[in-house]
Amino acid sequence: MKKFGKKAIKANRPARADWKETAKKKQVGVSDMTLLTKITNEAINDNLQKRWQNGDIYTYIGHVLISVNPFRDLGIYTEDVLTSYQGKNLLEMPPHVFAIAEAAYHHMKGYNENQCIIISGESGAGKTEAAKRIMQYIAAVSGGGRDSAIQNTKDMVLATNPLLESFGCAKTLRNNNSSRHGKYLEIQFNPQGEPIGAIITNYLLEKNRVVGQIENERNFHIFYQLTKAAPANYKEQFGLQGPESYLYTSQSKCLDVDGIDDVQDFQQTVQSMQTIGLQQSEQDAIFKMLAIILWLGNVVFVENGDGNAAISDPDVVHFIAYLLEVEAEALDKALTNRVMETQRGGRRGSVYEVPLNVTQAQAVRDALSKSIYERLFEWIVARINVSLQFHGQVTTLIGVLDIYGFEIFDDNSFEQLCINYVNEKLQQIFIELTLKAEQEEYVSERIEWTPIKFFNNKVVCDLIEEKRPPGIFAALNDACATAHADPSAADNSFVQRLGFLANNQHFESRGNKFLIRHYAGDVMYNVEGLTDKNKDSLLKDLLDLAASSRDSFISQELFSERIDPNSKKRPPTASDKIKASCNALVTKLMQCHPSYVRTIKPNDNKSSKEYDQKRVLHQIQYLGLCENIRVRRAGFAYRTTFEKFVERFYLLCPSTGYAGDYIWHGDSQSGCLEILKHNNIGSDEWQLGTTKVFIRRPETIFALEDLRDKYWHNMATRIQRFWRLNKHGIKHLQLRDAGNQLLGHRKERRRFSLVSQRRFAGDYLDVRNGSGVGAMIRNTMNLQGAEEVVFSMRCSMLVPRAMRSSVPSPRTLVITNRNVHILLTTKSGGTLQMMDEKVIPFSNIQSLSMSTLRDDWIVLHLNSSPEGDVLINCVFKTEIATHLAEASNGQISLNVQPQIQYAKKGGKPVTMQFTRDETVKRDDVYKSHVVRVPTGEPATSESAGLISSRSSAQRRQPAQRSVAPLPSSQRPTPPLPSANRPMPSSGIRPPAVGGRPTPPPAINSSRPVPPKPQPGSIRPPASSGIRPPVIGANKPTPQAPVSQANRASVVSPPGRAAAPAASNSLPRRAPPPPPPPPAAKPGKPQYKALYPFQSAEQGEIAFEKDAVLEIVEKDENGWWLAKYQGKEGWVPSNYLQEFTPPRPAGRPPPPARRPGSMQPKPTIPTSSRPASAVSAAPSTQASSLADAIRARRQQHYDEDEDDDDEWK
Fold first, then answer.
1. Does 126 carry a binding-site annotation?
2. How many other C-beta atoms can be found within 10 angstroms of the C-beta atom of residue 1019?
3. Which residues contact 405 (CB under 8 A, 6 or more apart)?
4. What is the rounded CA–CA span in Å between residue 1049 and residue 1057?
5. Topology of domain 636-717, per CATH?
6. Catalytic residue among 165, 186, 194, 407
7. Which CATH architecture best describes the domain 414-536+573-597?
8. Distance between CA 994 and CA 966 in Å, rounded?
9. C-alpha 611: how far from its chain's center?
10. What's the confidence (pLDDT) of residue 1143?
11. Which long-range contacts (CB under 8 A, 24 or more apart) does 1197-1203 make?
12. Which end of the chain lies in a sparser environment, N or C, as judged by fewer CB atoms within 10 Å?
């Protein structure tokens, strides 16, 4: 790369940040489908297909994320990718599930509002993976790295994923890792946004999968993990063999799955149990119950001579009884017989034992297996919750819902009805919050809006769950209650009751089947076995068998309930349970701020290259993406109440916030308007409703959030700067004072150095920390172990040339606590190279020399060096001399002479001459051992801000502690600013306590809190006797017009009396009436106390109400220096009110003259007066005006030049 005909210099410096980094990948389609030019289902499908084929599986619809399953690893979940999304809003990065997690986490912390992330879609669309990635992101960014308890919580939350996947997921035709249960994980956070606990709620475990699967599907993963990877002791104790040995794992003829390593997954499952805190005895009990289920599946029934069921292999039953710790005969009887009890008139009747046939016995066996697994799964979830339980106060939470999606099979039964019902409820939430509720909110808030039509699936939810008129669940329960003995009779009763739904347009009854028109499509359900599955009750014989177990885990943990024979209450059915849990879930979700991940399945073959347009189009239609885009484009991206908006963004407007404090005293709606107008947000970007503010585009709210973040960043920077100044400022100022003492008024000064308050910071190139160019310098220097850098700066060094005069050459000067390093920078092959040209130990430096003029040269006299002395030109020459003198403990002295004699190479003495030359505009000019320099300020001039005279170090000493704040419940709020109560000159208003708007109390009922000093503006202690300069104190105060006779005395500057008028001894006319008494000399302003102020702090003075204080000096930070009762100290300005003392009474009129005394006195002509008497007053007036004008001009000149005061 070339520039201006030369090769660009390459240095070892960090690469410049490039905003295009996120756009390097070729963008295909649109990342936010609200930007589509044509809003149709086909256009959405086409955009998703283009992005999916390009590897972009995520797309936005506003804040809703659309995810299309890639069926392959795209490498988009690495730590680097995760870090890149941290702290970014949705528009700053490409669409990603990490962005949704970041938005939810940021919203939770920023607005202190509970969040929920609803993940929905079909089975195999990627819901479980999305939930895992959200949990991964939250665990990574939620802080608490040094807190072992926080980290332990994170580990346990992440460990729930593999554990619940093993027990709750299985291989299906559509998905190799299909969730066969629903899970809602609530992660609990403390006020700092750190996870402190979690709660998992389980929904709809598909327990029928335990006893049977269709071909090419599998049972739950844990059965294959255990049978393939069980340790030797489990195999011996539980008789475990391979999965092919058990009916429950082999009947579907699918033992292995591509991409799933059951042996490795078993080790991960065990590790997860240990992380969550399961004891070894608890783990043994879990795997023992799994072995019992597997062996129960191997119980085979045959028909005996009576046509009843009998067990073909009694040894299997004996081994199961051994594991259950029950009697073998009791187990045999429970599996092949059923105890029946007759009732007469509500009283218990006879008890009979009814033998079962083979089909009935198999059903009892399967019911026991399903019940054991369901109870075991619920126990694991409850045990996880015990480990994750937090007993303290929870501030906020983020909920992640992962529940299996909509299902349509060839044979759909009770399980599919429940699953699809839950998905209908989730779709209803989406409609309520994104479509229906949004439009209703616009109407209620009187926002201009064009209504958009959409399908509301509430009618389908009512069809399933409603009681009046009865829905499908109500008909099921009635059928189970009236025909509970015979399952087929109950099914027929259910079919008859479905006749009440014939008029519903979303329902059709077709013999022993019925059809429901769901939002996702029409589903035909089979009535056979529906009522039996709805009963969800275990036979009393099996419950009694489990209760008799000597294993407390079985009898006390899994089967702890006991049946009350006298109870007439109908036990809840499966539909009752799913309805109750689903409504509870909806209630939880509606109380949170929602985020949505809508997953789409591109094909049914789990192929990473096949995109089935027809299949995806159907999902786009029933998900309502087209309507979602229309509502999003026509509506507002953000809305919140006036109070929350002002509370969030009051910092961005000086009328509502100052220095982090809330100072707005108006209503919240006016505060919103003030903030929006102050930040120049166009009126077309927002609307104010009756209770809420609406922001149209997300870019606007992101910009406000960015401004808010920058505000806090700037405040933090100011606080850090203030802390650094207080920590090191005194040391640097002391070093600067030592430098001035080292000069000893022997050298002319730069004008700007006299008004400067620059500290001798030393390491200006940051060589000590090695940042930027400092790293290159540090790498070049060969620093010893204990060698520390104390000074670094650019300079010029006088370099000899062969047969020619020496010239200044650029160098880098570094002073350590041992040596002086002079580094040379050169360019070689287009690359910067640096070398340590000279290393001069302090022991080799004999002395230093400077001239008496205001030049920037300093000479290092070395002890018999063959290279000669070192001549350096640096604007910080005083600081260089000071560091060398301090580092050498005063052994290196400084000589200040009119001419400097130094040794050239070889020891030849040479004299450098210094002459004044006013043609040199700035700095100095060197040529042939002569330095020409303009005249500087006198050597006796004093610098501003030195420690010996009004030093800035003392002005920046830590402020005295202000009045101790009252509790928030008792802390008064300052009264409103008024015309008779001046505020500090910087515009500071008394802050409201608590950072929230509070109605102003009466002025006599409370007192304001003294204002907090703003960063960078500190009130000095009064005891030091040093007062900070008041801005504009030296400016002449405007005077009121005065008469010509008094002008001389008024205009005269302080310290100079006006020339007395010429006296005249000749007689005059009678004097006129006496003038009014002259105004009193303008003294220091007086203020009256509005409230009492008590303080025991040093430097502060206490006073009572109505006390009159004399203000010595007003500081901008709200603390004024006052004098009261002979004491001087600091007082809060917003406790005071300006006070004007009463004017003294005028002089009494002179007595009337007696008759005959009114004789005219002779007058003298003006021309006959002495010249001195005539001209005395005018000359005094002229000189006073001239002095005042000169002083004002000089002050303005100094102020104009004040920007360049950093050089010394």
1. yes
2. 23
3. 120, 121, 122, 123, 125, 127, 419, 423, 599
4. 7
5. Alpha-Beta Plaits (3.30.70)
6. 407
7. Up-down Bundle (1.20)
8. 11
9. 39
10. 65
11. 1198/755, 1201/751, 1201/752, 1202/755
12. N
Classify residue 713 by its DSSP letter. H
Catalytic annotation, pick one of 62, 297, 405, 624 = 405
- Please state, in angstroms and rounded to a whole number, the distance separating the CA atoms of residues 1041 and 462: 88
595 catalytically annotated: no
Whether 529 has a binding-site annotation, put simply, is no
635 is an active site residue: no
CATH topology of domain 747-933: PH-domain like (2.30.29)
Dist. CA 940–CA 951, nearest whole Å:
18
Q: Which helix (H) or strand (E) covers residue 931, if one does? A: strand 930-933
User: b/e map of 186-204 (b: 16 or more CB within 10 Å)?
Assistant: bbbbbeebbbbbbbbbbbb
Burial of 651 (0-12, 13-18, 19+ CB in 10 A): buried
Q: How far apart are CA 412 and CA 526, in angstroms?
A: 6
Q: Check if 128 is active-site.
A: yes
pLDDT for res 250? 93
Is 785 marked as a binding-site residue? no
Q: Which listed residue (29, 45, 67, 124) is catalytic?
A: 124
* DSSP-assigned letter for residue 116: E
Tell me: is residue 124 an annotated ligand-binding position: yes
Q: Tell me: is residue 1055 an annotated ligand-binding position.
A: no
Cα 985 to chain centroid distance, Å, stands at 34
Question: In DSSP terms, which residues pair with 1086 in a beta bridge?
Answer: 1110, 1139
From first CA to last CA, the distance across the chain in angstroms is 40
Look up residue 559 and give its amino acid.
F
CA distances 1195 to 650, 753, 937, 1032, 1198, Å, are 39, 16, 16, 10, 5
Question: Is 407 known to be catalytic?
Answer: yes
Given the residues 67, 69, 175, 825, the one annotated as active site? 175
* Amino acid identity, position 1003: I
Count the helices and strands in the chain (H runs, E runs).
33, 40
Residue 168 annotated among the catalytic residues of the structure: no
667 token code pair: 């209503």
Neighbours of 287 (CB within 10 A): 19
Scan for tokens 């400084």, then name that residue: 894
CA 685 to CA 672: how far, in whole Å?
A: 13
Q: Would residue 1032 show up in a list of annotated catalytic residues for this protein?
A: no
Q: Is 371 annotated as a binding residue?
A: no
* Partners of residue 310 on adjacent β-strands: 302
**Angstrom distance (rounded) from CA 374 to CA 290:** 11
CA–CA separation, 1011 and 277 (whole Å) = 52
Locate the domains of the chain by residue range.
Answer: 414-536+573-597, 636-717, 747-933
How many Å apart are CA 970 and CA 998, to the nearest integer?
A: 13
* Residue 33: both structure tokens together: 């489908």
Q: Is 183 annotated as a binding residue?
A: no
Cβ atoms of 901 and 909 closer than 8 Å: yes
Sign of CA dihedral 100, 104, 105, 110: positive
Do the domains 747-933 and 636-717 match in fold? no
Q: Which residues of the chain have pLDDT under 70?
A: 1-26, 144-146, 342-349, 434-437, 449-450, 452, 483-486, 563-569, 637, 725-730, 755-757, 943-1083, 1096, 1116-1117, 1143-1208
- Residue 142's identity, in one-letter code, is S
Identified catalytic residue from 69, 153, 172, 178: 178
- 59 among the known binding-site residues? no
369 and 295 Cβ atoms separated by less than 8 Å: no
Element (H, E) at 1055: none
Q: What pLDDT is recorded for position 1026?
A: 35
Which of 31, 89, 128, 656 is an active site residue?
128
Q: For residue 770, what pLDDT is reported? A: 86
Residue 124 is among the residues annotated as catalytic for this protein: yes
Instruction: Report the candidate in 291, 313, 451, 279 with the shortest Cα–Cα distance to residue 372.
Output: 291
Catalytic status, residue 583: no
Could you say which of 31, 59, 123, 878 is catalytic? 123
Structure tokens at 1206: 């950093």
